[in-house]
Design brief:
Length: 105
């Protein structure tokens, strides 16, 4: 009977060790999952920061492009005004020339 009790006690001990190992394994897997989850979260944050940085740069570039576009537009308007002024002066000279030719006849 004592031998049977010792055998039974060893079986119980073995079962307890197996349960402890299983629990430790579960905790290890859970810890690994939590670590992986933190790594994924960190990667997501880095991607969001990168995207935000790109958007900020794009926004800055867009503002610079809009400013440059306004400058170009202003230059074009000035050139058109200059061309119109030259054409007006030329037509006035032509009209004056015709008037002088007409008066001299």
């Amino acid at each position: 009977m004592q031998a049977a009790c010792k055998k039974r006690s060893k079986e119980i001990q073995s079962i307890r060790v197996a349960k402890l190992e299983q629990t430790a394994s579960k905790h290890s897997v859970q810890a690994a999952c939590e670590k992986r989850s933190e790594e994924i979260q960190s990667i997501r944050i880095a991607k969001l920061e990168h995207t935000a940085s790109k958007q900020c740069q794009a926004s800055s570039m867009q503002a610079a492009c809009e400013k440059r576009s306004e400058e170009i537009q202003s230059i074009r308007v000035a050139k058109l005004e200059q061309t119109a002024s030259k054409q007006y002066a030329s037509s006035m000279q032509e009209a004056f020339r015709r008037d002088s030719e007409h008066s001299s006849r």
